[in-house]
Write a structure and sequence with these properties.
By secondary structure, this protein is mainly α. The protein has 2 domains: 13-80, Winged helix-like DNA-binding domain superfamily/Winged helix DNA-binding domain (Arc Repressor Mutant, subunit A), CATH 1.10.10; 96-132, no CATH class. It has 6 helices and 3 strands, in the order H-E-H-H-E-E-H-H-H. It has a 3-stranded antiparallel beta sheet. Strand 2 (62-66) and strand 3 (71-74) form a beta hairpin. The N and C termini lie far apart (57 Å).
């Protein structure tokens, strides 16, 4: 089933979890998927993961790019995922995400890549280039 690229996508939590893996790793095998879940304290049987992956293929959310071993990659990007999860999360936080973000910053070990990405987002939202100059600052 082919999906329109602009069509919003609604995912179950388990589907979202698999897509998060694919978005971060680009391509995965069944063995890599099983290892990923095992490292997170959630050992799942290969048959269970194979079924979940194939259902996502059938729905058009991911695609199989090789057969032996099967290699999967995302067929949709993060921007296509329905915002309903983020809206629900914002509601749970009372629309104030700063305490949650502060909690993450204090209690989570971010990779250098994650930190660089977050710094870039904050700089862009703040109207600041990476060099530390304002985007909209007028020259005098």
């Amino acid at each position: 089933m082919k999906r329109k690229k602009t069509q919003p996508v609604k995912l179950a939590p388990g589907e979202m979890e698999l897509l998060e893996l694919l978005w971060s790793e680009k391509q995965v095998t069944l063995a890599k998927t099983q290892e990923w879940f095992h490292k997170r304290g959630r050992p799942l049987a290969p048959t269970t993961l194979h079924t979940r992956l194939n259902r996502l293929v059938d729905k058009g959310f991911i695609r199989r790019v090789a057969e032996n071993p099967a290699v999967y990659e995302a067929a949709i990007d993060r921007k296509q995922v329905s915002g309903r999860y983020f809206e629900l999360f914002e509601e749970l936080c009372g629309r104030n995400l700063v305490p949650f973000m502060a909690h993450l910053a204090a209690n989570r070990d971010f990779s250098p890549e994650e930190l660089a990405y977050l710094e870039k987002l904050v700089a862009e939202k703040g109207g600041i280039h990476h060099e530390g100059t304002k985007k909209h600052e007028k020259s005098e």
